[in-house]
Specification:
Structural class of chain A: mainly alpha
Mean pLDDT of chain A: 87
Largest sheet of chain B: none
Number of strands of chain B: 0
Shape of chain A: globular
Low-confidence stretches of chain A: 104-111, 113-118
Structural class of chain B: mainly alpha
Number of helices of chain B: 7
Strand content of chain B: under 5%
Largest sheet of chain A: none
Strand content of chain A: under 5%
Helix content of chain A: 55-70%
Mean pLDDT of chain B: 93
Radius of gyration of chain B: 24 Å
Oligomer: heterodimer
Largest interface: A-B, 67 and 61 residues
Distance between the termini of chain B: 77 Å
Distance between the termini of chain A: 44 Å
């Protein structure tokens, strides 16, 4: 049985109130969740409390858990929220204002090329569908690189997208030319844009891609 | 400080040292707080960013099975080098947590195996003298 099938079975048993299944899920995930929280808090007792809150949060949110979503990522997301709450309560995490200091509340400024918020209003389900579609397209690209052993392309994409480094810095880190980095970025965004068009998704919700159309 | 890094900060997704450095910077830098506020506003408006989707969908994270193979040293060099980069250079928090957990399990198994060996040695030492010569 695959790992996903085992997790699906566990979830269905837990939904029915099976205590053994719940124990099993805790045993499977508590170590990695504790690792994630403790990296940050460097305090075992406080970290264990946050992980405990994570499991409670998971059970409370179980009716809304979408089985299509990887269980581990879902648990990490809950842990991140609980950890952020803890850091706020203990005064470690600074409060971010809900609007920038030099703008009026009637017009919320958006980062980068983003446009007015009012144009984008839609349901949470719709937003989930959009991000899932783009994630699927990104995964297809990344899986092709993996299958071909093109690890440098994955590194390049991570430095560009996850670290947000400029082309020049990425080129220096990989020993590539700036043009090669720019080409990979162009190809990646081009393929995503095509996928967006194919799926008839509203381009306004992907501002980086909309500007390419 | 790039926007993707600020986005990752808001999701508790940067390496711990970077998270702490950003917390300090946000306390002292009004312009940085404004940028973070703009990102929150963009998210609340419903606009997606490619970087955010890449990170939250964990497009480049390895599976737990892959990390197990990495720790056993059975992956080919290119693959292992990439995973090392993901862990050490990019500092992926989720994969770091998985690797730490797998290492703890390996250590526990090794300790248990040692305990079994020690127990067997003790049984043997206390009884072998009774074997028929």
């Amino acid at each position: 049985m695959s790992e996903t099938a085992v997790e699906d079975l566990l979830i269905s048993q837990i939904r029915r109130g099976d205590e053994a299944a719940w124990r099993d899920l805790i045993a499977r995930f508590e170590g990695r969740l504790l690792g994630y929280v403790e990296q940050r808090l460097r305090n075992r007792a406080a970290s264990e409390d946050v992980v405990q809150e994570t499991f409670v949060g998971f059970l409370l949110s179980l009716p809304n858990f979408d089985g299509d979503r990887p269980l581990e990522s879902y648990l990490f997301t809950i842990a991140a929220h609980k950890l952020t709450d803890y850091l706020r309560r203990t005064g470690r995490r600074p409060t971010i204002p809900l609007q920038s200091s030099n703008e009026s509340s009637s017009e919320i400024p958006l980062a980068g090329p983003y446009r007015g918020a009012s144009t984008l209003a839609r349901s949470g389900e719709r937003r989930e569908l959009e991000s899932a579609a783009l994630a699927k397209a990104l995964r297809t690209i990344a899986d092709k690189w993996r299958a071909k052993g093109e690890w440098e392309k994955l590194r390049c994409a991570e430095l560009l997208l996850v670290a947000g480094q400029p082309n020049k810095q990425v080129a220096a880190a990989l020993g590539w030319s700036e043009q090669s980095v720019a080409n990979l970025k162009f190809d990646l965004l081009e393929r995503l844009t095509r996928e967006l068009t194919r799926q008839k998704l509203n381009p306004e919700v992907f501002p980086e891609l909309e500007s390419r159309r | 400080m790039s926007d993707p890094e600020l986005e990752a900060f808001l999701d508790e997704g940067l390496p711990p040292e970077r998270m702490s450095a950003l917390e300090e910077a946000l306390r002292n830098d009004a312009a940085l707080r404004d940028r973070a506020a703009r990102i929150i506003a963009r998210r609340n408006s419903g606009a997606h960013s490619v970087a955010e989707i890449w990170r939250t969908a964990r497009i480049s994270c390895a599976t737990r099975a892959e990390w197990g193979q990495y720790l056993l040293g059975v992956l080919d060099e290119g693959h292992a080098e990439y995973l090392r980069f993901h862990l050490e250079t990019l500092g992926c928090r989720y994969c770091t947590a998985n690797v730490a957990d797998l290492q703890a399990q390996q250590q526990a198994l090794a300790a248990a195996a040692n305990a079994v060996q020690e127990r067997r040695k003790k049984y043997f030492a206390s009884s072998a003298g009774l074997l028929k010569k």
